[in-house]
Write a structure and sequence with these properties.
Blueprint lengths: L2 E5 L4 H9 L5 E2 L14 H17 L9 E13 L2 E3 L5 H11 L3 E12 L4 E13 L4 H9 L20 E5 L2 H5 L3 H10 L23
Parallel strand pairs: 1-2, 1-3
Antiparallel strand pairs: 3-4, 3-5, 5-6, 6-7
Helix pairs in contact: 3-4
GO biological process, one term: nucleotide metabolic process
Organism: Micromonospora rifamycinica
Family: Belongs to the Maf family.
């Protein structure tokens, strides 16, 4: 039975990560109002938002008799110094955050919810990665914020963009920081009786044909 993955996210980083792993998802933006969701724990917040995004998109899809559709919702937040940090409100907010974060550590949590549209079921989990921020200068912070990159991402930093130079290291899966953990996705698919290899496109990212073993 053909298997289709729908990514309930407009994040180009998540889509790029899937593409590099041989997966070509369709993309439908959920339209969920994230500001209406509150939680005391970062893990609970990101998982609730991932669940809402996935379900909102799944509700717009109809099961097809000759195929199986999965919807993946993800959301990331940074737990830092007892606070839950999503995207900065503006440049001033991003600058203040970096002034606090430099030289310290935080934990980036990414919630994942995978909905099986045909069987009306779902599986979900959170991936967490410790992030060590570099002791950057005021001038570096100002230059980084001026690029606009930190304004568009949870925690006001990236690992796969300009912000990667301002991290001293991580402990955990780097995909979690980008916004989607491939190892966790593999485990969620397994819980649905599927393999991540079922999602591989016929042609790999390097234009090499993927051939089944045996």
């Amino acid at each position: 039975m053909p298997l289709r993955l729908v990514l309930a996210s407009q994040s180009p980083a998540r889509r790029k990560l899937l593409h590099a792993a041989g997966i070509e998802p369709d993309v439908l933006v959920s339209g969920v109002d994230e500001s209406q969701v509150v939680a005391d724990r970062a893990e609970d917040l990101c998982l609730e938002l991932a669940r809402m995004k996935a379900q909102a998109v799944a509700d717009r899809l109809r099961p097809t008799p000759d195929g199986r559709t999965l919807v993946l919702g993800c959301d990331s937040v940074l737990a830092f110094d007892g606070e839950i940090l999503g995207k900065p409100a503006d440049a001033a907010d991003a600058t203040r955050r970096w002034g606090r974060m430099r030289g310290r550590t935080g934990v980036l949590h990414t919630g994942h919810c995978l909905v099986d549209v045909v069987h009306e079921s779902h599986v979900e989990a959170v991936a967490s990665t410790v992030v060590r921020f570099a002791d950057v200068t005021d001038e570096e912070i100002a230059a980084y914020v001026a690029t606009g990159e930190p304004l568009a991402v949870a925690g006001a930093f990236t690992i796969d963009g300009l912000g990667g130079a301002f991290l001293d290291g991580i402990e955990g899966d780097p995909g979690t920081v980008i916004g989607l953990s491939l190892p966790l996705l593999r485990r969620l698919l397994r819980d649905l009786g599927l393999s991540i290899t079922d999602l591989w496109a016929r042609v790999a990212p390097g234009a090499q044909e993927i051939r089944p073993l045996g």
